């Protein structure tokens, strides 16, 4: 790998990375920090299901990760260093934002652009600071009144809960304002919210489109708030979710039909870790995931990645997908087996605790059955029972 130039050092400094001399025969502290920063971005992707993005409505940390990902992609030395760890394909075809979109490189300038004027000593203090726009949104959300015709909406909330329980609907991280439309459900501050009405779309003083909404909450209250206020509230709420529309029909076919495009693979892995809990249940502990790349590419360097328990893995089953939304399918599979999620904490290469989310104590034959039921659409009528180690049909 080529040595870092002075210009590269300046960019690394803007990434918050101290520039130190390269150690012979091992990675320099500077390189370890680059890798650690990239792993932070990867953890964000695992949690939210997408790469960090720029935008006024985004979380502060997401916007900082987006800028840092851009700079890693731009700088060849950084890019070459982390490519072996890029199992999510973040650097493949990565589109770098323009300067107008990404803003300044340093964290302080980005915070200023977000309207945060508090004095901060460390980046961790950001968790306790809110931009003025977010404060206004919170105030508007808080201004609720009793919903006089709640009896009309109560059956809708009850049906949505049944759909969630049966897997007909799923709740995922809220992503963009265009998702806010009449007839859609969200989860905000632990309550379900239903957009009952949407007024005329107008352009506000900042040149952004906005509209007044009538939002009904499942506790019998309602709020007349702006669409952008709901957007900011959902974005800033770590538990904020969009409830998807009902899933209709089989999710994918057993064999591709003419004109179908292969879109991914369900993979099932066993760990070769010598961790005592893994070793004691090796035949039952499986990692279940969905990838759009080859499985070999996905598991490359598994022994270096916390999500693979820092150990090599064995591929025990794969199922090819066609014309399927990979993210929704993976969420569905993880929801089904959530009662059997393998609860283990490992320490990563930098001494930090990490709890993997895609490992489950489930026999392989049950996973096979679940995939079959996903294919024919009957999975919505079943749940996994860890005690009997089988899929149980739900009673109406």
Protein traits:
34% helix; Bacteriophage T5 Orf172 DNA-binding domain-containing protein; 13 helices; globular; 20% strand; four-stranded antiparallel beta sheet; 396 residues; SH3 type barrels; alpha+beta; seven-stranded antiparallel beta sheet; 3 domains
Number of domains: 3
Silhouette: globular
| Total of helices | 13
Count of DSSP strands? 17
Question: Which percent range fits the helix content?
Answer: 25-40%
Structural class category: alpha+beta
| Main sheet strand line-up | 1-8-7-4-3-9-2
Overall mean pLDDT stands at 77
CA gyration radius, whole angstroms: 23 Å
Low-confidence stretches: 1-5, 17-25, 97-107, 109-130
Strand content: 15-25%
| Cα-to-Cα separation, first versus last residue | 62 Å
Domain Bacteriophage T5 Orf172 DNA-binding: 280-374
InterPro entries: Phage_T5_Orf172_DNA-bd
Pfam family, one: T5orf172
Protein name: Bacteriophage T5 Orf172 DNA-binding domain-containing protein
């Amino acid at each position: 790998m080529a040595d870092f130039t002075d210009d590269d050092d300046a960019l690394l400094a803007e990434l918050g990375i101290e520039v130190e001399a390269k150690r012979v025969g091992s990675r320099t502290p500077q390189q370890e920090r680059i890798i650690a920063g990239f792993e932070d971005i990867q953890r964000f992707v695992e949690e939210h299901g997408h790469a960090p993005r720029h935008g006024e409505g985004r979380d502060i940390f997401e916007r900082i990760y987006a800028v840092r990902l851009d700079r890693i992609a731009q700088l060849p030395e950084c890019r070459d260093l982390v490519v072996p760890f890029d199992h999510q394909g973040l650097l493949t075809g990565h589109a770098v934002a323009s300067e107008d979109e990404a803003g300044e490189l340093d964290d302080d300038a980005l915070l200023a652009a977000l309207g945060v004027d508090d004095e901060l000593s460390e980046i961790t203090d950001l968790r306790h600071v809110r931009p003025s726009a977010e404060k206004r949104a919170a105030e508007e959300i808080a201004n609720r009144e009793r919903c006089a015709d709640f009896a009309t909406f109560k059956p809708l909330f009850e049906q949505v809960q049944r759909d969630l329980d049966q897997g007909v609907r799923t709740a995922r991280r809220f992503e963009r304002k265009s998702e806010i439309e009449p007839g859609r459900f969200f989860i905000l501050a632990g309550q379900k919210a239903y957009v009952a009405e949407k007024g005329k779309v107008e352009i506000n003083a900042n040149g952004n489109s906005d509209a007044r909404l009538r939002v009904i909450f499942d506790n019998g209250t309602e709020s007349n708030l702006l669409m952008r206020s709901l957007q900011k509230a959902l974005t800033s709420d770590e538990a904020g979710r969009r409830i998807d529309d009902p899933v209709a029909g089989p999710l994918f076919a057993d064999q591709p039909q003419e004109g179908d495009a292969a879109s991914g693979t369900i993979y099932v892995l066993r760990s070769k870790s010598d961790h005592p809990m893994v070793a004691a249940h090796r035949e039952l502990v499986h990692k279940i995931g969905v990838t759009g790349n080859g499985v070999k590419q996905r598991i490359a360097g598994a022994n270096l990645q916390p999500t693979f328990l820092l150990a090599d893995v064995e591929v025990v089953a794969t199922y090819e997908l066609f014309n399927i939304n990979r993210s929704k399918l993976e969420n569905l599979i993880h929801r089904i087996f959530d009662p059997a999620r393998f609860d283990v904490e490992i320490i990563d290469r930098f001494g930090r605790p990490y709890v993997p989310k895609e490992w489950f104590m489930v026999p392989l034959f049950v996973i096979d059955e679940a995939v079959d039921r996903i294919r024919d659409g009957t999975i919505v009528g079943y749940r996994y029972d860890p005690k009997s180690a089988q899929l149980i049909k739900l009673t109406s």
